[in-house]
Write a structure and sequence with these properties.
alpha/beta, pyruvate-formate lyase- activating enzyme, Arc Repressor Mutant, subunit A, three-stranded antiparallel beta sheet, 14 helices, 13 strands, 17% strand
């Protein structure tokens, strides 16, 4: 852990010119809350000094079992003003199924500790669409989520990722994925209940109270340049995407000895178009049709978009509002298929 922390600071120094004046800082992926608040603080101070920025939004991802009021107060002293807490579920049996280290009580207590420390911008993650989750339990999960009054909720369908214990069980026939109809019903219930309580769904998986959208994540969906630091981190400068090596050992050695261990991917017309479609259609706003023409000048791609979008508009899988093209909210659960049809 100390070696990785130092490597992050060093990579930050080496690549500080990749982005000119970042406004947000997001410490997440993996479990950064395993670090002491002072260690997180050192990382933040290094970033502030390099870019001469106080960052308008500084988020730390945290697991409930790592959070105490004192820990949160120290984070706040270093400038962290947003916490993203991985609650996932309010049922102990579901947390055990997901191999989480915390229990249901710790999830609620973590939010309480952050609030008592003065945090006014708290996001929580919850998961649906997994074996053993009934519609009744999911409704209660949403009720519980609302009762602890966060400012932001991210909700994801459980994925079976290669290399995980759950994926291994699936391969062995010990785990059956949930039927898509069942997961779709849970997603629809989430949309219905949060909307009824005044929440805004501004992206497929993200809901917020008025004024509490994630500024950092919104930048990804708008195609703004960003710098990613650490093993597996991706960066994008508008022309080229860079991906750091996954191995922590190779990453730290690369930072120490140079060159940095990373791959480079130049963005072609095709990739630019596909990524534009994939990111913008995830959002409530969608995109202006003329923006496609500004982003991609390739006539074959533009003809494909025009032909396919007209077909999807006719089917009701897309709609147009004040020249913005969007996916209807009641079709967001099947958005992957709609987006895929538009891709080239």
């Amino acid at each position: 852990m100390p070696e990785l922390l130092q490597a992050l600071k060093d990579e930050m120094t080496i690549r500080r010119k990749y982005v000119a004046s970042p406004h947000t800082l997001y410490i997440g992926g993996g479990t950064p809350s395993l670090y002491k608040a002072e260690e997180i603080g050192g990382l933040i101070e290094h970033a502030k000094n390099l870019w001469n920025s106080n960052f308008i939004e500084m988020t730390l991802e945290a697991n409930p079992e790592d959070i105490s009021q004192i820990y949160c107060q120290k984070l706040a002293d270093y400038g962290v003003n947003r916490l993203s807490i991985g609650i996932q579920s309010f049922y102990d049996e579901h947390l055990r199924f997901m191999n989480r280290r915390h229990n249901a009580t710790q999830g609620s207590k973590a939010v309480e500790a952050a609030r008592n420390a003065g945090f006014k911008n708290i996001s929580i993650d919850i998961i649906f669409g997994f074996p053993g989750l009934s519609q009744k339990q999911w409704r209660q999960t949403i009720i519980n989520a609302l009762s602890i009054a966060p400012e932001h909720i991210s909700a994801y369908q459980l994925g079976l990722e290669p290399g995980t214990l759950l994926f291994k069980k699936y391969q062995q026939g010990l785990l059956q994925p949930v039927a898509q109809e069942e997961a779709a019903a849970q997603y629809a219930l989430l949309q219905e209940m949060l909307s009824a309580n005044g929440w805004e769904q501004y992206e497929i998986s993200n809901f917020s109270r008025q004024g509490y959208r994630s500024l950092h994540n919104s930048a990804y969906w708008q195609g703004i340049s960003y710098l990613g630091l650490g093993p597996s981190a991706h960066s994008y400068n508008g022309v080229v995407r860079h991906a750091n090596v996954r191995s922590i050992k190779k990453y730290t050695e690369g930072v120490k000895n140079l060159p940095l261990a990373m791959k480079e991917e130049r963005i072609t017309h095709k990739k630019r178009y596909n990524e534009f479609i994939m990111t913008r259609l995830r959002t409530k706003e969608g995109f202006l049709q003329k923006t496609i023409e500004q982003q991609v000048s390739h006539p074959t791609i533009l003809n494909h978009f025009k032909r396919t979008s007209e077909h999807l508009l006719h089917q009701g899988l897309l709609f147009e509002q004040e020249q913005y093209i969007k996916i209807p909210p009641h079709k967001w659960f099947v958005s992957d298929g709609i987006i895929l049809e538009l891709m080239v």
